[in-house]
Model the fold of this input.
Amino acid sequence: MLFNSVEFAFFLLIVFTVYWLARSSWRIQNPLLLVASYVFYGWWDWRFLLLLIFISLFNYLIGIKIDGGRTEWQRKVFLITGLAINFWVLGVFKYYNFFIEGFVDFLSLLGYQIRGTTINVILPVGISFYTFLSISYLLDIFKGNTSADRNLINVLLSLGFFPIILAGPIQRPSTLLPQIRTTRVFDYQQVSDGLRQILWGLFVKIAVADNLAPFANEVFNSFSSNPGSTLFVGALFYTIQIYADFSGYSHIAIGTASILGFRLMKNFNYPYFARDITDFWKRWHISLTTWFRDYLFLPVSFAISWKIKTEKVLLIKTDLFIYIIASLTTWFMTGLWHGANYTFLIWGLLHGLLLIFYKYQRKPRKLILKKLNIDNNNIFLSFTEGIFTFLFIVLTWVVFRSESVRDSLEYIKGMFSPSLFSNPGDLPVTEIAIALLFLIIELRQRRKNHALQFEKLNSVWVRWSIYAGLVFIILLFGGGAQEFIYFQF
Done:
């Protein structure tokens, strides 16, 4: 069921009521939440639920083996086995056809023609997210960051908690399990804040993302027949759509967990107001970027640093060389995580390359600004960098959204043609107005955890007028119950 559906509203109401009636002990609360989570996930397809249960049971058992290994060698064997099974399941369901087709294409370039066998398999919704939850659980046990929980229900719930199972945030079991083991006490302030965050998430998803989607889809589906100005508007629409869609989901997920007594990590921090690309990736999909940082970037950097004993490698300073290799590896995998398409790989590598450039230019930049007597926090400089970063993000979203690399290149080529300055034609005025309202509110509230935090707004009438206004916009201008974009990942 979708977060933005009537079914989920009734489901959440029932779960909330029964859950807090059973608030006397976490031993009662947790089984209730586990059943609710499996009903929620199985609503999509019971076959997906069987896969989730199998993966969760396997990681529960292998986690105990890792924790109880008598020697370091035994623990490593169990860890490698656990990681291999998790990656194998993810690879079969998400990447098998992509790798087979890529291998066939590579051999054809060498002059060998073979026929690869692909399989017709349905991608289980949320598989990338709960696989990463499982992998972090095993790695944290191995590294000693947490111990294996012997309570089966606790582990199954940490790997299948319904607010996060489909599209995150990727709340690692090492931070979720301590909350699962503790009896949650009803807190009016936490529940009311969670409801506000759910309302904001619904507004952002239904009124903003779902309203921008039809125009953006139409432009991308017929880009070859549109002038550059329309293509640019379409790219802007998609840029706002994907942010509103995914951040809306995260707000609803965090708010839902909050009304049940859980605190999840913040997943978005107003990323389009970032000054540069490094700042952007501290604000966008925070749970994923920190996951890759902790489990890929830092281990790769550490492994390389142990093997390099010289000050330079290929005329590049060793620290920068390590950063380049670790960054390219991380961003290649980040792109691949999003899907089995070359567009995602290129999208990831483009961001990785710009991050490398920003790392490389840091010292020369300081010297240049010092010579020019320009403060790094100069308003004009910050604004210029912010605009450049935003335009880069818009262009890379074109690559991300396109069906193929060729389509993305044609789209960008058409966008930067002389027709870029032509009349884009009729634009959806209402949708633009709602999107602008969304961005203005976010700009105003950019220092808050979410846009409906009003600590200094004491007037009850004003607060409830804002809530009522958002509900009115959702009901009157809602774009319909469309699936969330990140369900495909």
Remarks:
- The chain has three domains: 6-180, 188-268+419-480, 273-416.
- Strands lie at 312-313, 316-317.
